[in-house]
Request: fold
Amino acid sequence: MVKCSFSGKEIPKGKGIMYVKKDGTITYFYSSKEKKNFLHLGREGRRMKWTPAARTFKAGLAQKAAKSK
Reply:
């Protein structure tokens, strides 16, 4: 299965959106909400609270903070 370029969610076969840029780069999106946030609003998935990528990113930051103490 393919992972979403914005949130990191697994996209089941037959679902999601595949977007091809002019330079040939292929990006996959789970929903139109994620496509809009990435392409039109210029946001990063790891910075949005509702994405799985954000949860793993923040967990990694918490581990680094705990190690440095």
Remarks:
- The longest helix spans residues 52-68.
- Residues 2-68 form a domain with the Ribosomal Protein L24e; Chain: T; fold (CATH 2.30.170.20).
- The first strand starts at residue 2 and ends at 3.
